[in-house]
Specification:
Layout lengths: L2 H57 L1 H12 L5 H11 L3 H12 L18 H11 L12 H18 L4 H10 L1 H7 L12 H13 L35
């Protein structure tokens, strides 16, 4: 082979080697670009998913919170609710539904002076004291969840008895007072007979919650008529007999 041919052959090999090298670099670069695009897509997709999930949770946070509360909150006081339900013959799920409607199971005092889980006013507490044959009463006792539930359950039983097992009338009286319910129809009261929108909404909210609040507390059962508890013993020296 002549020197000229040898040089040309070497140049050809060099060009081929350079072309192959550029091809490998181009392929490697394209692969890196594809990988980067996939990563960017995943990051953007993840960010959009997180944003969408956050928006969904934000928009439905109240509903999730309500659902969580309905299932868990009554369990804090399940023992006393069960005990009072059995003793005073008031369905446990009705007690829990009233507590949820009144206070969401949080001790609080309303602008009208109603106190505790079942939102009992001083005047109602004195009525309960009189009905149960108690001798003394201190309003601060209603801050005790157990005592508050005892008072509220006693009053619920009394209203159920007074209005002939009509839960609509009993709940309306718990919210608006016995005098109003008696004037509206008493034991024959229906939802349509309630002229106060707040009281009608209260009854409409409490009744469907029976069986949904505190699912482990008790299944819904009919309200039965029995004799109110009137024993003079008490849970504290300062409490009425209703706090048994």
């Amino acid at each position: 082979m002549s020197p000229g041919a040898s040089v040309r052959s070497a140049r050809t090999r060099s060009r081929r080697s350079s072309t192959r090298s550029r091809g490998r670099r181009t392929s490697s670069s394209k692969a890196r670009q594809r990988s980067q695009r996939r990563k960017r897509t995943l990051v953007i997709g993840g960010a959009l998913f997180v944003a969408a999930l956050g928006g969904f949770l934000l928009a439905n946070s109240d509903r999730f919170q309500r659902t969580l509360e309905e299932v868990t909150l009554p369990l804090q006081h399940e023992d006393i609710i069960r005990q009072q339900a059995a003793q005073k013959d008031v369905p446990a799920d009705l007690i829990a539904a009233v507590i949820y409607a009144e206070s969401r199971f949080r001790d609080q005092t309303s602008h009208a002076g109603a106190r505790g889980l079942m939102q009992i006013t001083p005047s109602t507490a004195k009525v309960i004291e009189s009905l149960s044959g108690g001798q003394t009463f201190k309003f601060d006792d209603l801050a005790d969840p157990d005592i508050n539930i005892r008072y509220g359950t006693f009053y619920l039983h009394y209203l159920i008895e007074k209005f002939g097992d009509n839960d609509i009338a009993a709940l309306a009286a718990y919210n608006a007072g016995e005098t109003n319910v008696t004037a509206w129809g008493g034991s024959s009261l229906s939802l349509d007979d309630i002229p106060f929108p707040e009281t009608r909404n209260y009854v409409e909210n409490v009744r469907p919650r029976r069986g949904r609040i505190g699912r482990s507390s008790a299944a819904p059962r009919p309200i039965r008529r029995s004799t109110p508890t009137r024993s003079p013993s008490s849970a504290r020296g300062t409490c009425t007999a209703a706090a048994r």
